[in-house]
């Protein structure tokens, strides 16, 4: 620690303050550390990585996205070089040889996705893949930035490596015909009578009346339509693609290709695709060329992957809500680091609007007023569509602003760099949540600091704290507001809404007439229900993942 402290002072003129050293020591003792936004998590992580690497331990620093992996690797070069260490990073699209060279360095920055897929490819060692000789040196030590996002939020998505299946033109035409038939039959079914949309997730379910109607509609069809189980599954997928998955909310269409959106970060999920025909049905819906069929070669979840590291630790500003599950699944305890300076953040009352249109109009008016005062404003929205709708209202109000969503992901660094300037208004999806550092100029601080307007429907309280934590960092001035929409609370897509009791639902319906504190309680009740559902889903997925591994081992034998 003393060597790192001296090297940091020599290269950057900085010092680790005692709380950063405490956080670094907790990481080396295999703990998860909750450290508030702006308290110096990046330097604490860098110190722990350097100390472990000086002891000869290969270190993987796991970041929230590829942009942060490259940025943090470059930022650590000078400090690591002074200590005689080599730093590298892994990015999407890198060739196996370049990956092998990067993993051979003392400290490697990468996303969890890149690490997990390289681990799977090394295990498969497919001829011609470049992984016949492993690119990884093993899973020795992982330090996770935004640990709860990786270990919890992203744990519900299984990581699958698929291989293209050889298919003749006649087979391809037959497969395409089945999906076309499923889409046509699904369009003949009525919502509420024949099918229902599942709450809290993009999925559809046939009712008994729907199953009977499906059998009647498919009487003239042969092949898979004669088998009730397959028929119901085909229609469930077609209904999900048609009614539950929405453009600019769950996916983008770019260059006639479907690109999935990560629902947690708002970013494009590079390389991710739906399975079991759902991808083909969405492509058919949007008029995109069909993807080739694929078979699952290997799969893993982040839960099982990170359990394979000898040494696992991580940092985040939001861990305490899930400390029980983190200890149960990963055996890691949460250690909280106190604030270095008292917080000056001012949290305004929760406001409720009867419609999204009324809320956007009010947001535009407030942003215009704050901009005239010289304060920077960050507005958090749910989807690409929401961010563009608000952008239209701001433009109509004459408010200069920038938009950060999956369509502008290539300009992310520039947008974030300008978000802290005096009078700057930034509209963002969840891309401005995890791992984002918004630096304020002196004029912005003098005007009162960053003001955050929270308009998101987040699945958990942790995600709320991430967005609101952008304001008033390191003892700086700042303020926040939470603005909800009563129409959204009753929407079937609202997280957990149909799961409330009849009494709670009646309270939610009249939320616009209730006190601010009760509005907040109502929203938190939705989130608590969804947190419990997500936790159960993660446990079920981990169980399925282990069963799949057992079956795969038996098949190899």
Can you characterise this structure?
The chain is α/β, with parallel strands linked by helices. The chain contains 21 helices and 20 strands. Helix 5 links the parallel strand 3 and strand 4. The chain is globular, with a radius of gyration of 25 Å.
Please state roughly what percent of the residues sit in beta strands, choosing from under 5%, 5-15%, 15-25%, 25-35%, 35-45% or over 45%: 15-25%
Rounded to the nearest angstrom, the radius of gyration is 25 Å
Enumerate the strands of the largest sheet in spatial order, edge to edge or round the barrel. 3-4-2-5-12-1-13
Structural class: alpha/beta
Q: What assembly state would you assign to the polypeptide chains in this entry? A: single chain
Distance between the ends: 48 Å
Helical amount: 40-55%
Number of E-type strands: 20
Q: What is the tally of helical segments?
A: 21
- Shape descriptor reads globular
Query: What's the pLDDT, averaged over the residues?
Result: 85
Low-pLDDT runs: 491-514
Largest sheet: 7 strands, parallel
Can you give keywords for this protein?
20 strands, alpha/beta, globular, single chain, seven-stranded parallel beta sheet, 45% helix, 557 residues
Short structural summary:
With 557 residues, the chain is of the alpha/beta class.
How are the SSEs placed, and which strands pair?
Blueprint: H1 2-12, H2 18-28, E1 32-34, H3 41-54, E2 59-63, H4 66-82, E3 87-89, H5 96-103, E4 107-111, H6 112-124, E5 141-145, H7 147-151, E6 159-164, H8 169-187, E7 195-197, E8 204-206, H9 208-217, H10 228-244, E9 251-254, E10 257-260, H11 278-286, E11 294-300, H12 302-306, E12 311-316, H13 323-330, E13 334-336, E14 344-347, E15 351-353, H14 356-372, E16 377-380, H15 384-397, E17 402-404, H16 412-418, E18 425-428, H17 442-447, E19 450-454, H18 461-468, E20 477-485, H19 486-489, H20 502-509, H21 516-556
